[in-house]
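Hey, I'm writing a tutorial for new members on how sequence and structure tokens pair up, and I'd like a real worked example in the thread rather than a made-up one. If someone can provide the structure for the chain below, I'll link this post from the tutorial.
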Amino acid sequence: FFIIYKIILIYKIILKRGELMRYLKLAILLFTLTSVYAGGLNIQIPEDVEVGDEFNIALNVENNQSIIGFECEVKVPYNLKIVNFSGNDSIKKMAGKFYQERITNNSCTVKFVVFDNPIKSDFYAGNITVKVVKYNNNTHIKISSKCSDEDGNGVNVFNEDMKIKIKKEEVAKPEKKGILEIIIDFIKRLLGE
């Protein structure tokens, strides 16, 4: 989305002025600019969970610029499973056909572009529901996101691995019974008690 927007923006500039070389240099500069900083991603995630639990990853963007595009990808390891994603309905409406969300068992991606209505404040990008299916003492969730400002420049938001502790299941140890208790239990079963 962001590359296409940059190309369209540059094409419009070239058509208006007709100064091809000058704007070609501008285009090269836009594509090679380093990213700028635009706040961050406020991730709400539990510190520890147990096998069988479901938990949510809330994606809240702290934005201090005017942005027109956003992309976030969350990847979970084999011992977790993404079961649902619910996005921001007002952003879906603003972006229209330029809104996309895709989930698999181990990844979730949300992307959108809002050409005519830049977002100029913090916003909620969505909520991911994850289920713990297996124990693993080294579970990391990879989250990466970026934005595009009104000039088409890439804006770093968040790119980190988040560790989550999965509590080991306690296996109940059977009670040790003496020989007399075993014989009494056996007799009770024979008599149907």
